[in-house]
Specification:
Layout: H1 16-28, E1 36-41, E2 48-56, E3 65-70, E4 73-78, E5 98-103, E6 108-116, E7 119-127
Antiparallel strand pairs: 1-2, 2-7, 3-4, 4-5, 6-7
Amino acid sequence: MTRLTSLNQSFALGFDELERALERVTRLQPDGYPPFNIERLKSTEPGSENLRIVIAVAGFKEDLLDITLEGRQLTVTGRKGAADEASYLHQGIATRQFQRSFILADTVEIDKATLKDGLLSIALKTIEPEVKVKKIKIYCD
């Protein structure tokens, strides 16, 4: 049975990849770990927007974190480090492995990533796409 979505309309042509990306994102995030924020920052350039993804990664060092961009899918992965020798009475800070993914629009570029005070910040820049108008010639048979 074919599922009907808002993109499955006769006037929305060529959006199959976008629909697959949306389905992929909804399946990728089973829990809320690690927590994250998406911030809108003031831009100094007209026609662009600056965004920042901030992920709480307490207990992870730089060498245990990976950031990859495959196609338009940004993936942040945290690997568990060496076994901790401590004997906890209570362990409330989770340092389990994780994978957090985001789908980026074609107009979003990654600027840089920084790790400070247990927060991984990924700076993004949104560029306004150039509008192209093309006149289509009509041929008569």
